[in-house]
Design goal:
With 94 residues, this protein is mainly alpha-helical. Helix content is 57%, strand content 11%. Helix 3 packs across helix 4. The protein starts with 5 loop residues before the first helix and ends with a helix. The mean pLDDT is 93. It comes from Arthrobacter stackebrandtii. Pfam families: HTH_34. Keywords: DNA-binding.
Length: 94
């Protein structure tokens, strides 16, 4: 079906996009905990989204431990909206 995005469609990546669509940015640990997965799994899924241009990762320096922050890019927000619309169209067609 047109509009379905294979990068976003994977369950953990879809959950990441859904979560990030509701916030400006989120810290890696929050995303990992929301998914209920190991660091390596969350990191791999974020990397796939980053490589596709859908997620921006930042590690601002400052005091204490450096944390990784993730946010949807404008392209990521558009791709997520299109994917959700395609899923809704698929459901409505039944």
């Amino acid at each position: 079906m047109s509009g379905l995005n294979e990068v976003i469609h994977a369950p953990n990546r879809l959950r990441i996009c859904a979560f990030l669509s509701t916030v400006d940015q989120a810290e890696f640990g929050v995303i990992r905990d929301m998914l209920g997965v190991a660091d390596s799994v969350a990191s791999k899924q974020l990397k796939v989204l980053e490589d596709a241009g859908y997620v921006a990762l930042a590690k601002p320096t400052g005091r204490g431990r450096v944390k990784t922050w993730a946010s949807l890019t404008p392209a990521g927000r558009a791709a997520y909206r299109e994917h959700v619309a395609a899923l809704q169209a698929l459901i409505a067609a039944e």
